[in-house]
Amino acid sequence: MPLLFDRVTIVGVGLIGGSLGLAMREKGLAGRIVGVGHRQASIDLALKMGAIDEGSLDPSAAVMGADLVVLATGIGLIMEVGRRIVPALKRDAVVTDVGSTKTDVVRALEPAMPAGVHFVGAHPIAGSEKRGVDAATAGLFRGATTVVTPTKRTDPDAARKVAELWSAVGAHVVTLSPEEHDAILARTSHLPHVAAAALVATLRPPDAGFAGTGFRDATRIASGDVNIWCDIILTNREAILSALWAFSDELAAFRRAVESNDRVKLAELLSAAKQRRDSL
Amino acid sequence: MPLLFDRVTIVGVGLIGGSLGLAMREKGLAGRIVGVGHRQASIDLALKMGAIDEGSLDPSAAVMGADLVVLATGIGLIMEVGRRIVPALKRDAVVTDVGSTKTDVVRALEPAMPAGVHFVGAHPIAGSEKRGVDAATAGLFRGATTVVTPTKRTDPDAARKVAELWSAVGAHVVTLSPEEHDAILARTSHLPHVAAAALVATLRPPDAGFAGTGFRDATRIASGDVNIWCDIILTNREAILSALWAFSDELAAFRRAVESNDRVKLAELLSAAKQRRDSL
To answer: Structure pTM?
Structure first.
């Protein structure tokens, strides 16, 4: 594979940032990778695992001279650190992120970039309940979808470079507007998270011993990190509220079929859901 | 292990019935096991796998002389066949079932039994999306919970025998009234099924490619057999409607926190759900 970037700085060497470092090194995509963490222990582990060549606790110092900066922290910190590093960015640098919601991030960071620096939003749909660089693997993005979210103002060359990076680490790259991304992810990820949490909240004291594999699978995502999920949900409020109303309508259709003991209608609803689920 | 029953007839040699046959034979719990199927092919397979000693297509002929009859078909058929075999049952026989809802089944079959024959409802909480005797294993019930649902009218000796059977094949036996069972399972199994189907129904055309592991896990149960689930849902309508209303209330609490951009409240709701899910 050709060298895509001479110097890359990854801000946040957790599961996603660490996996990206490992994958870029495995494919030889970067000349040098600098990793930024907020704890020396994670930096040391990332160095030991070979996810980065150099570690730093200071984002501004670390991005100096970088051709590509990847903001791989939680969403709140992506917007904060993204603004903070602006004075230290070199001309022609490309800045990207890995946040799970895109509209707020892109609106905050695109206009904040200095002349000659280009921001491109991105979201690799990968990861798990696991967190931290110790769970990072070079293969995390292989076969996963990464959404790149350029706007009318995005430099096409910068968007192409970011797409190339994700393709090179094995992801299937899809281009969407930030708003399209957020509407889709509200239905495929954020609503299911809220529904799982609400299912758990519906349990009553005697129920715990009777939760079988089905319940466990259906609610596994409710174990996700609370702060990360507050960030995700509160930066995608409108789309999540729409998804919640649409979900309530679907639930009401089931409720009416049960209330009226309508087997034909119930079978029709279950059957349509089964067919769509089986086709995923 | 001691012989628990001299002659056992299992009506329905699918995943549950076939696994029970395999487990009883492995532990030497029955003198002879007769299996009833509605297709000769499943009977032949059950015989070949060693799940039964003898096969039959005729439930009434097969239950003659049986000390224990296990109704292991879908719920609709449990009630129908349970009534149909009455004239053929021998005095002192114990009749039990494995249906996923209990109130309707117990109300239908308990009073239908002739003098000296005892019905005891039961529900092994085991199984998967898989169906059919080819998926049966002797270990299916090991570590699983089986609920036994005696009523005031149930013969204590018959209830003890049924509980012994399930303990002997490795299940953790819990005794509940049919109504308690149905209320709990509405929240731990039936509501999650409806919610999963409604989540799938909420997807819009562009979404399919963006459904990651989280969505797949959360909606796996929506792939369950439509007829089996119509039977389950329509024989537990009241409890499922209560669970649906409780779930709607929990969803509304999340919706209000999102609408009012209330991070403290949202974190509290997510955190409570995470703690309960982690403790399962």
So the answer is: 0.91
